[in-house]
UniProtKB/TrEMBL annotation:
<dbReference type="InterPro" id="IPR001304">
    <property type="entry name" value="C-type_lectin-like"/>
</dbReference>
<dbReference type="Pfam" id="PF00059">
    <property type="entry name" value="Lectin_C"/>
</dbReference>
<protein>
    <recommendedName>
        <fullName>C-type lectin domain-containing protein</fullName>
    </recommendedName>
</protein>
<dbReference type="InterPro" id="IPR050111">
    <property type="entry name" value="C-type_lectin/snaclec_domain"/>
</dbReference>
<keyword id="KW-1015">Disulfide bond</keyword>
<dbReference type="InterPro" id="IPR016186">
    <property type="entry name" value="C-type_lectin-like/link_sf"/>
</dbReference>
<dbReference type="InterPro" id="IPR018378">
    <property type="entry name" value="C-type_lectin_CS"/>
</dbReference>
<feature type="domain" description="C-type lectin">
    <location>
        <begin position="4"/>
        <end position="141"/>
    </location>
</feature>
<dbReference type="InterPro" id="IPR016187">
    <property type="entry name" value="CTDL_fold"/>
</dbReference>
Length: 164
């Protein structure tokens, strides 16, 4: 699987599924739907999808729109994010890097486009909000642990220096 820093990526091109089925497939295989945290990572994915060169144009990533509520978390006393906030479904972290297509997110079904599709348009892959129930392909990520890397002695020393 192609690797960038501490992650490897699995291009889910063997079946199409809704957002949740895609995440379940990733989890069953020790991974999660991909999170894209920087322009560098986004560019790397763009490169591997372009090199793969197949006809698939839509992939689920882990980004989701938070619910349209304006309340305080009873436990933490922190405000629960509003509808304009996007989180990574797999970590619960607020998203800080975005790569939307022009005109997106447009929530075209009004509170219905809660998930994010990495969509190809004119040879460029960018994000569009999409109904979670649509069936498309998906990308999983595997995050390498320190133990994984130590067990892989051939590449490990340089790799450990890079990450930790
Ligand atoms: Ca949309």
């Amino acid at each position: 699987m192609p690797r960038f820093k501490q992650k490897s990526y699995y291009i889910g091109n063997v079946f199409t599924g809704n957002f949740f089925k895609s995440e379940l497939f990733c989890r069953k295989n020790g991974m999660n739907l991909v999170t894209i945290n920087s322009k560098e990572e986004s560019d790397f994915l763009q490169k591997i999808l372009t090199e793969k060169g197949d006809d698939i144009e839509n992939f689920w990533i882990s980004a989701t729109r938070f619910l349209d509520v304006n309340i305080t978390n009873e436990c933490t006393k922190l405000p629960i994010p509003s509808t304009n906030d996007w989180i990574w479904f797999t970590t619960g972290e607020r998203i800080t890097y975005f790569n939307w297509h022009i005109g997106e997110p447009n929530n075209i079904y009004h509170h219905g486009e809660l998930c994010v599709d990495l969509k190809k348009d004119n040879k460029i892959w960018k994000w569009v909000d999409k109904t979670c129930w649509d069936k498309i392909n998906f990308i999983c990520e595997y995050t390498w642990t320190k133990e994984d890397i130590q067990g892989n002695s051939k590449e490990s020393s340089q790799y450990l220096t890079d990450i930790y």
